[in-house]
Amino acid sequence: MNMPSRPVVLCLSGHDPSGGAGLQADIEALLAQGCHAAPTVTALTVQSTVDVVDFRVLDREWVLAQAHAVIADLPVAAVKLGMLGSVEMVETVLEVMRSLPGVPLVCDPVLRAGGGGTLGKDDVGFAMRERLLPIAAIATPNLPEARILAELPDGSADECAEKLLPYCRHLLITGGHGDEQQVHNRLYSRDGARHSFTCERLPGSYHGSGCTLASALAGRLALGEDLASAVQTALSYTWRTLRDAEAPGKGQYVPRRLPLDFCS
C-alpha cells in the first residue's frame, strides 16, 4: 500500500564530517518535521565539533547537476540554503531557483563555523545580501552573521534589521551570543510587523544549531504552515534539540534532532 508522500525540501549546503552541522543536520531536522530531505552538496569541509580547518567548494556544474536531477524527479516544496562558500555558488543557487518559481527559500547565511572559523570570504556575505536575500522567503542569520551582512560590526539586532529589510521580506535574527539570561529571537518583516520569541538560555556551546533551525523552518513551510507559526514551531523544536544535546567529541555539543526511539 502506498503511503502519502512527505513534502520534499531541497537542501543546498556543505558536508560536515563530524555530523553535527551541514547536510546531516538538515536531514535529521527535516525527518523530525515529517519531511523528505533532498541533500545537494555545495562544499566539502574539514571540521570537527571543535572548529573548521578547511573547505572546498564544489564545481558549479556538479551542484547544478545534483539539483536539477532532484527537481526533475521530485516535487520540491521548499528550499533550504546553508554553506555556499563562494560568490560563484551564490550565482549557482540563483540559477537553481529559476527552475522553482514560487517555492519558498529559507536562507541560512552560513559565514562562520560555531568554533569561529570562516566558511567563505567577505564578498560571499555581500553577494548573499545583494542577490539571494531578495528572492528568499526568510533569512535566518544569528546576530554575528547579521552584522556581517549589514556591515555593522557592533550593530544591534534592530539596527541590522533596518539595514537588511530593504533586501528581504522577512528576517529572523537569532540571539544567544551574549550573556543574557533569556535568549531573544526576533522576527522582522518588511511591512513593519515584529515578533519576539524568548526562551531560556541553555549552558554550553552548540554545533549545528543554525542548520537545525533553518531546516526545521523550511520543513514547516513545506508542510504549509504560515510563516510566523512556522518560525515559532521551528524555534521550539530547536530549543528542545539543544536541551537534549550530547557531547560526542572534544568540542561543542551536538543537537539531538531525532528522538532516541526514532528507528525502533
UniProtKB/TrEMBL annotation:
- What are the UniProt keywords, alphabetically? Kinase, Transferase
Family annotation (InterPro entries): HMP/HMP-P_kinase_dom, PM/HMP-P_kinase-1, Ribokinase-like
At the top level, the lineage of the source is Bacteria
Which Gene3D superfamilies did the record assign?
A: 3.40.1190.20
Give a Pfam family name: Phos_pyr_kin
Which EC number(s) are documented for this chain?
2.7.1.49
Q: Which GO terms describe its molecular function?
A: hydroxymethylpyrimidine kinase activity; phosphomethylpyrimidine kinase activity
Its annotated pathway reads: Cofactor biosynthesis; thiamine diphosphate biosynthesis
KW Kinase (keyword) present: yes
**Keyword Transferase carried by entry:** yes
Q: Which GO terms describe its biological process?
A: thiamine biosynthetic process; thiamine diphosphate biosynthetic process
Q: Where is the signal peptide?
A: none
Example GO CC term: the record gives: cytosol
Residue span, Pyridoxamine kinase/Phosphomethylpyrimidine kinase domain: 16-252
Query: By its UniProt entry, which CDD domains does this protein fall under?
Result: HMPP_kinase
Report the protein name in the record.
Answer: hydroxymethylpyrimidine kinase
